[in-house]
Design goal:
144 residues, alpha+beta, Alpha-D-Glucose-1,6-Bisphosphate, Chain A, domain 4, 3 helices, 7 strands, 47% strand
């Protein structure tokens, strides 16, 4: 398992940030590499909600089903997915700050078989740059 993380100060209150990121249809507007996202479960959104997401990773488009694994309004959102033998657990934690919200975004990348262990590092490397870019895109989306 490999873990990558980044943080960013965002110019909005934690609840506003949470409302934006927990609307899974907004994933393409802030999360790097996401081409499309469509909610596949019935509202309201919460733990167990699912979405079909198309992601571009290392030059390929990969379709994955994403499940919300943590849902604490104004505080924490967790997403889980797996594709091609690699599992991803992504968590966005929000903390009030004097200028808005301190957002901490982390991803755990896990090979689901011994055969995918070599790929785990490559995916984690791509994820490391993606999460920093994603937080910057989120900051920009909240200003707009």
């Amino acid at each position: 398992m490999r873990r990558v993380d980044a943080s960013q100060l965002l110019p909005a209150a934690p609840q506003r940030v949470f409302d934006f990121v927990s609307d899974l249809a907004n994933l393409p507007s802030w999360q790097s590499g996401i081409v499309s996202a469509e909610l596949t479960s019935s509202p309201p959104v919460g733990i167990g909600s699912t979405a079909h997401v198309v992601r571009e990773l290392m030059g390929q488009q990969i379709a994955v089903d994403v499940t919300i694994t943590a849902y604490e309004p104004g505080r924490r959102l967790g997403l889980s997915s797996a594709a091609s033998g690699i599992g991803i657990e992504a968590t966005l934690e929000l903390e009030p700050a004097s200028a808005g919200t301190l957002a901490r975004f982390s991803m755990e990348v896990r090979a689901q078989s011994v055969f995918m262990k070599a790929v785990e590092g490559m995916v984690a490397g791509a994820a490391a740059s993606d999460i920093a870019t994603s937080l910057e895109r989120l900051r920009t989306a909240l200003v707009a």
